[in-house]
């Protein structure tokens, strides 16, 4: 299968599910809260449904992808995002809004595992790392689009969500036409019992690293915009611009696949972990300064996509016989970490303020650097030896 035929619709699907259906909510929440007369506590409870839905659907998607193949789950993810966005756009009350949030948030959990499986099934092995990381970078494109939507249509959140729903429908049709239909093929099914992580070498490190990175990045996703708004004198478009910077620079994070191929997975992981956690510390140093704020947003956007791409490749290498599980495990633990991180971040901010809280979380993220993947020296030596043997045999045959 051609690289672009799978990757381009994949990037678009990740953009509408993660960027528009999930991350756009925080930018448009003030308008929704005012229109629907929601208190802060109600808004917080509704927002938390994104995480709840994600944690449930990523487990469901992993199981169903393993049994049925990726095609049906990719279509289900797009349909869930479309219906969720449409319900949010036309919601008459908080209850319908909550249902829309559940469907929109659930689409992100549904979409990640099947795309990992699709790449492993229909893409050549030497292109799989780059394909997975570029598809993953679609999140940043969606975030940038949601930021632009907040600037252009911030006064009409219902129209914004209707436009998002229409874009999602177009992407759904594109994926339906582009993704091969799941046939009754043995390579679309995995061995029974491969859904367990028990006894899998490297699984414990992957789980801990994902959890720490989720905890450390949570305050930036949840409170960074509020932090700079409280600390500085920013206009509305500058605050939305902060979000757009996260999205635009996130596109650069797609190069993680190429860096993994050249520098190795351990090096890429350490680099990504160091820089993603430094973004919180940089923001804490001078949140009132536009340049510093935008610099931290650029670093965070780029290296959040970068490090999730690294976790994705690492997970697939750990669970080599089940690519969907290899994506589900790190992404689920990343989300669980973000739930934990958000809960404690709110308490830290109330007790000590934004600056100490962001610095603390930055240093918590530094711990993840020491739990990374190990260099496969023996495997590399064997591969090199096999290449030399094949080259020698070929030379002898020619002569």
Automatic annotation (TrEMBL):
Its main location: membrane. The keyword Mitochondrion does not apply. Residues 7-380 form the Major facilitator superfamily (MFS) profile domain. The chain crosses the membrane at residues 45-66, 73-90, 96-122, 134-153, 159-179, 200-221, 241-260, 267-286, 292-316, 323-345, 351-371. Keywords: Cell membrane, Membrane, Transmembrane, Transmembrane helix, Transport. It is found in: Cell membrane. InterPro entries: MFS, MFS_dom, MFS_Efflux_Transporters, MFS_trans_sf. One of its GO terms (cellular component) is plasma membrane. Gene3D superfamilies: MFS general substrate transporter like domains. Pfam families: MFS_1. It comes from the Bacteria. It is a multi-pass membrane protein. GO terms for molecular function: transmembrane transporter activity. The keyword Transmembrane helix applies. This is MFS transporter. It comes from Lentibacillus salicampi.
């Amino acid at each position: 299968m051609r690289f672009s035929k799978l990757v381009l619709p994949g990037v678009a699907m990740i953009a509408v599910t993660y960027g528009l259906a999930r991350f756009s909510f925080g930018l448009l929440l003030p308008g929704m809260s005012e229109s629907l007369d929601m208190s802060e506590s109600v808004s917080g409870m509704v927002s938390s449904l994104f995480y709840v839905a994600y944690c449930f659907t990523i487990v469901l998607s992993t199981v169903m992808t393993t049994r049925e193949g990726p095609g049906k789950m990719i279509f289900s993810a797009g349909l869930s995002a479309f219906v969720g966005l449409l319900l949010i756009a036309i919601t008459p009350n908080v209850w319908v809004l909550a249902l829309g949030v559940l469907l929109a948030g659930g689409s992100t959990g549904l979409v990640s595992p099947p795309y990992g499986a699709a790449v492993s099934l229909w893409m050549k092995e030497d292109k799989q790392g780059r394909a997975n990381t570029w598809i993953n970078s679609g999140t940043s494109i969606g975030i940038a689009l949601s930021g632009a939507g907040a600037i252009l249509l911030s006064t009409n959140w219902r129209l914004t969500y209707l436009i998002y729903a229409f874009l999602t429908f177009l992407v759904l049709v594109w994926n339906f036409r582009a993704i091969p239909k799941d046939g009754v093929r043995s390579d679309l099914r995995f061995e029974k019992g491969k859904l367990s992580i028990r006894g899998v070498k490297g699984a414990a490190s992957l789980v801990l690293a994902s959890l720490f990175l989720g905890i450390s990045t949570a305050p930036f996703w949840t409170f960074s915009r509020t932090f700079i708004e409280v600390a500085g004198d920013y206009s509305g478009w500058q605050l939305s611009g902060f979000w757009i910077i996260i999205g635009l620079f996130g596109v650069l994070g797609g190069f993680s696949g190429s860096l993994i191929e050249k520098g190795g997975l351990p090096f890429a992981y350490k680099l990504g972990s160091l820089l993603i956690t430094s973004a919180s510390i940089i923001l804490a140093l001078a949140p009132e300064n536009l340049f510093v704020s935008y610099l931290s947003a650029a670093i965070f956007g780029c290296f959040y996509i970068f490090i999730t791409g690294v976790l994705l490749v690492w997970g697939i290498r750990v669970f080599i016989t089940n690519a969907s599980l290899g994506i589900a495990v790190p992404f689920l633990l990343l989300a669980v970490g973000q739930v934990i991180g958000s809960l404690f971040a709110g308490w830290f901010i109330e007790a000590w303020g934004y600056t100490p809280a962001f610095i603390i979380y930055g240093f918590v993220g530094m711990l993840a650097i020491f739990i990374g993947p190990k260099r496969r020296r023996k495997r590399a030596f064997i591969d090199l030896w096999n290449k030399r043997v094949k080259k020698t045999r070929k030379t002898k045959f020619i002569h």
